[in-house]
C-alpha cells in the first residue's frame, strides 16, 4: 500500500494483550484509507481482520472514523463470539435484552458493586413482554424465541460488525455520538457495552440521515428489513431487529394513513 505520491505508508504495530499475536496502528490504516478514497466516493469503509490499537497505552480499538475526511475503519477481530468468554463479554444482556425493565432495575441496584442481574431475570422479563405492543417489546420477544441451538456464531459475528460499521459511517455523515436516546450512534467504552447498543438510529439521528440522503422513512426501514430477514433464523440480534423494523413499519403506515 502506498500514498498517491509514492511515499510508503506507515505500518506501526505493537504487542497485543495476549489474545492476538500483535496489533496494527489504527491511525496508520486511517491515513492510508484517506489516500485510497476515490474522488467519486462519498465515503470509504475499510474492514480489517487484524486487531487494532489507537494509542500506545490503549488495549484495543474496534472502529474509528475520520468523519471530516469521510473514511472509517472497523476491525472484526474482537467481535469473534469464540472470544466472548475470554474477553468477559456479557452476551445474555445484549440488545434488546439490555432494555428489559428487570435488567435495567437490577443494573441500577447493583451499580455500586458492578454486578449484573441473573440470566433468569432477563428470560422472565422477555416472557412477560410476549404480548406487548411496542417495537422494543416485539424485539425482546423475537430475541427470546430464537433457540440457542439455532444461534450461529458466524451470523452473530456479522451482526456485531454491521452495527459498528453503521456507527462509523454515521460519523462520515457528520453525526457525533448521540446523547439523546438509545441509538446506534451512542459511544461505547467496552465490548459488553457495545453489545448493549441498539442497531437503529434514534429519531434525532434518523431525521439527520433522511435529510442528508433524501430517503423515505418506510423505504429506509424496508431496506434494512430485507437484509435482516436473510439472517433472522440464525441469530437473535437479526431476529430482534427484524421484529423491531416490522413494528416500526406498521406504526409509520398507520401514522401516514391517519394524517
Description:
It is a single chain. The chain has 259 residues and is mainly alpha-helical. The protein folds into 2 domains: 11-78, no CATH class; 88-257, no CATH class. Helices cover 45% and strands 8% of the residues. It has helices at 26-36, 84-87, 101-109, 119-128, 135-145, 153-172, 191-196, 203-213, 217-228, 236-258, and strands at 13-14, 23-25, 44-48, 52-53, 63-66, 71-75. The strands form 2 sheets. It has a 3-stranded mixed β-sheet with strand order 1-2-4. Strands 3-6-5 form a 3-stranded mixed β-sheet, sandwiched between helices. Helix 9 packs antiparallel against helix 10 (236-258). The longest helix has 23 residues, at 236-258. The model is unreliable at 1-8 and 119-131 (pLDDT under 50). One of its GO terms (biological process) is proteolysis.
Q: Mind sketching the topology for me?
A:
Layout: E1 13-14, E2 23-25, H1 26-36, E3 44-48, E4 52-53, E5 63-66, E6 71-75, H2 84-87, H3 101-109, H4 119-128, H5 135-145, H6 153-172, H7 191-196, H8 203-213, H9 217-228, H10 236-258
Parallel strand pairs: 2-4, 3-6
Antiparallel strand pairs: 1-2, 5-6
Helix pairs in contact: 5-10, 9-10
Number of domains: 2
Helical coverage, percent range: 40-55%
What order do the strands of the largest sheet run in, or round the barrel if closed? 1-2-4
User: Low-confidence stretches at least 5 residues in length (pLDDT < 50)?
Assistant: 1-8, 119-131
Total E-strand runs: 6
Described by strand count, sense and barrel closure, the largest sheet is: 3 strands, mixed
Encode the helix/strand succession as letters. EEHEEEEHHHHHHHHH
Overall pLDDT level: 86
Strand-residue fraction?
5-15%
Structural class label: mainly alpha
**Spatial separation of the terminal alpha carbons:** 55 Å
- State the helix count: 10
Shape: globular
Radius of gyration: 20 Å
